[in-house]
Design goal:
217 residues, alpha/beta, 7-stranded mixed sheet, two-stranded antiparallel sheet, 6 helices, globular
């Protein structure tokens, strides 16, 4: 962990730059932790300041969540939107804290999220596009009810999004993810979407594609 007293526990890979480094904030999935996506860090360019955040809600027997996911008697899944909105705003605050604490470039902030972290990456970027200019959303979907109410009035002109999903994802159906593109296209946001023949995960081809997307955007 870092010694900085910020609102979220996190791991950090320092940038090769001494100041104004482009920033990637990683947001893990439900039941995981900050070590999960951090395995990508060593494979990304050295100039990035990479911070992997730990979600605030501890789970039993291990792992953390950004918000609770519950099931009703018919096994229908529903999310705790109040907690999700609280995490959305906590992440937005955390972005500002990281920029100040580590002297990062506020104009080059990327959110890289997986599953629940991807869902929140969409929510943060569309609610606060002035704080984020790129999103890599892996195995997630648009959950509009956790966006700020007036989000459609935001300026998305500097926002670019890469999304990907597994065609045999058993956790979040591919059909949910396929709704992302028409939704984001309607907001006139630059959006790239890819599908890969995997389950709820990221294969090497997927990693190389979003790595190349980062290099070119």
């Amino acid at each position: 962990m870092t010694t900085q007293n910020l609102s979220l526990e996190h791991l950090i890979k320092p940038s090769s730059l001494t100041e104004k480094a482009p920033l990637i904030i990683m947001l893990h999935g439900y039941g995981s932790n900050e070590n999960d996506l951090f395995s990508f860090a060593s494979e990304l360019p050295d100039e990035y300041l990479i911070v992997s955040a730990k979600a605030p809600l501890p789970m039993q027997p291990y792992g953390n969540a950004w918000y609770e996911i519950n099931f009703d008697a018919d096994q229908n899944k529903f999310t705790n939107d109040e907690q999700a909105i609280a995490s959305r705003d906590l992440i937005a605050k955390f972005i500002d804290e990281v920029i100040e604490a580590y002297h990062a470039d506020a104009s080059q902030v990327t959110l890289l999220g997986f599953s629940q972290g991807a869902i929140l990456s969409y929510a943060v970027a569309l609610s606060y596009p002035e704080k984020v200019n790129r999103v890599v959303a892996l195995s997630g979907y648009i959950h509009e009810s956790i966006f700020k109410e007036d989000y459609k009035n935001n300026d998305f002109s500097n926002l670019k999004i890469y999304g990907s999903h597994g065609t045999v994802d058993q956790v979040i159906p591919i059909e949910w993810a396929r709704k992302n593109k028409p939704f984001i296209d309607s907001l006139k946001i630059d959006f790239t979407f890819s599908e890969f023949p995997v389950g709820h995960g990221v294969n090497p081809q997927n990693f190389m594609e979003f790595k190349n997307w980062l290099a070119n955007n």
